[in-house]
Amino acid sequence: MKITTDHIHSSNKPLEISHAREFNFLAENLEKKGLNVEALIQKIQALQIAIPSWALGTGGTRFGRFSGGGEPSTLIQKIQDVGILHALNRSSDSISLHIPWDIPQDYDAILQAAAEVEISFDAVNSNTFQDQADQSLSYKFGSLANNDKSIRKLAIEHNKEVIRIGEKLGSKALTVWLADGSSFPGQHSFRKALQNTYESLLEIYQELPSDWKMLIEYKPYEPYFYSTVISDWGTSFLLANKLGDKAFTLVDLGHHLPNTNIEQIVATLMTEGKLGGFHFNDSKYGDDDLTVGSIKPYQLFLIFNELVTGFEETSNPTPAWMIDASHNLKDPMEDLLQSVEAIKLAYAQALIVDRKSLEAAQDGQDVGQGQEILQDAFRTDLRPLVRESIRQSGGAISPIQSYRDLKVRETLIKERGKDSKASGL
Ligand code: PSV
Ligand code: MN
Ligand code: MN
Asked: Does the entry feature the keyword Flavoprotein, yes or no (predicted)?
């Protein structure tokens, strides 16, 4: 299925009048506050969030997987699904591949399929947390951190191969997420594991093309339950600093212990110019797969508040934006549309913060006023502004409603069958 401009126009038609009324009302209020609505729209339009190939199918927990039907079972189908999302919201113009789940067979066909739906290739992700079918050695006790040199070598070579694949597709970054860790005290030496990881990453880093980045993800636990080698931003930052200018820390929102102040981490990393990427999701307990903004929207806003000031006041390069979630109950494409909307909304809210007054409140130690200013921005309903930015980009006023009205899932089920399954987690 392909979404055409006719589809967009016909599904926008019934919404146009009420949308225009809501938008005009909001725009007038924003202009009264001294904000430039046109400039806001341009910034919101420019924010593009990559879709990971593994988010397009129904994910599972270790207890079960309940497929929703019509899932993409080939890389071309995954690209087409991102094309559908992008046609609807004009906000996701790239896909992030996971190797070996997405090894391209025919590069020309893959590049053509992507070009047809105006999609490019975001960061490529390596996978050394699973053994592949024909793998001679096992990652059971670690990959880049393993005590066994030959296992480390296998994992290093895999990462180099992922870079070569990404180069053929036009990717510009390698994301490394390592499961390596231990489940029991005494299982391994923390210092040896970290040193092995650094040396392995260095070998991979030396293979990076000059215009590439290495994004180092951290996670406190899971799949191992006692220790993880790269467990927190400090460890990732330390490695990125030691490796060099092309290495950065990647913040995945779901990879923090409860109540961690993620916005402060963002501020610190940006001060040092080392925030390289972002994986969006949300979590209630220790998970990392809930819809962005569905549990802690204020935290998401506070994170964007730091990002927006960081863009203005630091020389941190623009991070690679991506959603990282895998859903086991909802239609994954609907979830991705909801997630992108939540991200854009938080970004828009951060853009309207009255920065001058905030700074004055901070300099004047006016605690109450500082809070008022942030909450005023967060409590402004900016959905009409986000919708208008998407409409002006040629997308749907309500991407989710159009997705439903155009019967996208039903069509995909007809085309691909009820039992088609996406490769991945
Ligand atoms: C595992 O936690 C994970 O969700 C990481 O966040 C990675 O980015 C992703 O899988 C893909 O490897
Ligand atoms: Mn992630
Ligand atoms: Mn994760």
From this structure: no
